[in-house]
Design brief:
Helices cover about 0% and strands about 35% of the residues. With about 550 residues, the chain is mainly beta. It folds into five domains: about 1-80, no CATH class; about 85-155, no CATH class; about 165-245, no CATH class; about 280-385, no CATH class; about 395-520, no CATH class. About 15% of the residues are buried.
């Protein structure tokens, strides 16, 4: 705030006197100079302390002593905002070197961190610093300050120079992708900010470059592109160039905890999961909304579909027998829409099965043949394939026993039962969809009433009821094959096996058993789940999970 003039008796007492007026503890005019030709009275030195409120007027009146004054004049000044300006380079025309300013006011120390702001001891930004103009705008200051600010340090540069490109290496590596930020200030004071994407490209207003996340090396260029895409360099102050990044650090874990010796593992823990010769499935899933008409084929939008699942507007899954699907042409037709809530959502997946010819630790894969579908970046999945070989569901062994001790054995134990099942003329029927690899006991619990039970080694009791000659077949449903239709409804599903009633010729005694071994078309395999340190997701739908698909080929003549 500048006090331009205060008159007493028509005579200026102070001309062009600049003072600082903090919001609390304002300093009044002081140290007046004696005019060359005083008119009346005697000049004195006077200091007044006043505490104004922001936006309120300050009224000051200077009075001569030793003589009567009848025409004392006053001037009203108003604090228009809460910013206190300090000119650090009044006698210089050189820019300030970022990070060199330390300012003391009323016991508060303002520190310059090189980003155009001054911070207090608590780390709060309480002032703005213009390096080019050399001025500070204080937004907060201590109450009751009665002395001008003291500049403890301020370094200026002789002349100004800039650079149009830079390269640097971060203090630590590897870096987290998409976590690097580059900041610089042009010679005219404009701040430039750029960030790196997942591929290591650094892009922003006035900055372009690349970063290698693995080693933490980056190179940037400053400038803009004109209408013809020609690069126009833009000089920046090199002292303002800085970066922000997030890097990974790895803590060694006890081999007993891991279960493996990690001595020979890489420091970052990354190891190849694909090798040349492996088979992978390239997958992409998409959704298409349809409002079809009954009996009219509708295009899904893609051809040669691998998997399809249809749901209605309520989220209920529609069984496959409700529609006709042509995977090759990508057409779907609903003969009857009764009971379906439109629109329908078709989730369809396309895929290519390919062999890997080269695999790099960076994740780069070379395939034996070109891909035949479009696979958008960021939405495509590469799934490893575990080769099982030829598979088919089958009954591998059956025999009867007079009794069962409860021990699961791969050979008959004890004497055989008098009766037996006629599995030559009426074999047990299994399907690739419903059959699982398991061992079973079909036991007669009451011969007089033909009461039987079917026990699985892995699942326990799966069926009990009447199994009489000429009666109903035994066909317990495998719940894995039932589809959730919503609202508590499920599809019919497929049985584990079907034991024909025609195979039962009677003659059983209570306690007799038939041992059955089945082999499923889906091979057994172990699944190891590895979870990195993380917080539980707020949305249950975002929880970790996986899908396991069985992929098979059929020989055609």
């Amino acid at each position: 705030m500048r006090m331009t003039e205060i008159r007493t008796g028509g005579t200026p007492t102070c001309g062009n006197d600049e003072r600082y007026y903090p919001g609390i503890g304002c300093l009044g005019p002081s140290d007046y100079e004696l005019p060359a030709t005083p008119t009346t009275g005697e000049w004195v030195t006077q200091q007044a302390i006043y505490t104004p409120a922001l936006g309120q007027p300050i009224r000051g009146t200077a009075v001569l002593t030793g003589a009567a004054t009848t025409d004392a004049a006053s001037e009203t000044l108003t604090l228009t905002d809460g910013v206190l300006g300090v000119d650090l380079t009044r006698s210089l025309s050189a820019p300030i070197v970022p990070g060199s300013v330390r300012l003391l006011l009323g016991g508060w120390l303002y520190r310059d961190r090189g980003d155009g702001k001054l911070y207090d001891d608590a780390g709060a930004a309480i002032a703005d610093l213009d390096y080019a103009a050399g001025r500070v705008a204080l937004r907060r200051w201590p109450g009751g300050a009665s002395v001008p600010p003291a500049v403890e340090s301020c370094l200026t540069s002789y002349g100004q120079w800039g650079q149009i490109a830079a390269s640097f290496r971060t203090a630590t590596a590897p870096l987290k992708p998409e976590a690097l930020q580059v900041v610089a200030t042009t010679l005219d004071g404009t701040q430039l900010i750029a960030t790196a994407d997942a591929d290591g490209r650094i892009q922003g207003e006035g900055i372009e470059g690349r970063v290698d996340y693995a080693v933490g090396v980056a190179a940037v260029h400053f400038g803009t592109r004109d209408a013809e895409d020609a690069w126009q360099p833009l000089a920046v102050d090199p002292t303002t160039l800085r970066y922000n990044a997030v890097a990974y650090s790895y803590l060694p874990l006890d081999a007993d905890i891991l279960g493996i010796d990690g001595t020979r593992l890489p420091a970052d823990g990354r190891v190849p999961i694909y090798r040349p010769g492996d088979l992978v499935m390239i997958l992409h899933a998409a959704e298409t909304a349809l409002s079809p008409s009954a009996g009219v084929a509708a295009a899904i939008g893609r051809t040669r579909l691998a998997w399809v699942r249809v749901t209605d507007a309520t989220g209920a899954v529609i069984e496959g027998d409700r529609y006709q699907l042509d995977r090759a042409s990508g057409q779907i037709m609903f003969p009857d829409l009764a009971g379906l809530t439109l629109p329908l959502t078709v989730r369809h997946t396309v895929g290519d099965l390919r062999q890997i010819t080269d695999a790099q630790i960076s994740g780069w894969l070379a395939l034996s043949r070109p891909l035949t579908h479009d696979y958008p970046a960021g939405e495509t999945i590469v799934a490893g394939c575990l080769i099982i070989g030829d598979r088919r569901a089958r009954v591998s062994a059956t025999w009867d026993q007079a009794s069962w001790s409860g021990a699961w054995a791969d050979a008959p134990s004890g004497s055989a039962a008098t009766a037996t099942l006629n599995l030559i003329d009426h074999p047990i029927q299994v399907t690739n969809e419903g059959c699982d690899t398991d061992r079973w006991v079909l036991r007669c619990t009451n011969a007089a009433s033909d009461q039987w039970e079917l026990i699985s080694e892995n699942r326990g009791l799966v069926w009990q009821g009447v199994y009489a000659p000429g009666g109903e077949d035994i066909a317990p449903i495998n719940p894995r094959t039932r589809i959730d239709l919503g609202g508590g409804a499920y599809s019919a599903g497929t049985p584990y096996m079907t034991i024909p009633a025609a195979a039962n010729g009677g003659g059983w005694s209570t306690g007799n058993v038939v041992r059955i071994d089945t082999v499923g078309a889906i091979a057994e395999f172990w699944v190891a789940r590895s979870i990195q340190q993380s917080d539980e997701p707020a949305d249950p739908a975002a929880a970790d999970g996986c899908e396991i698909h069985a992929l098979g080929n059929i020989d055609r003549p």
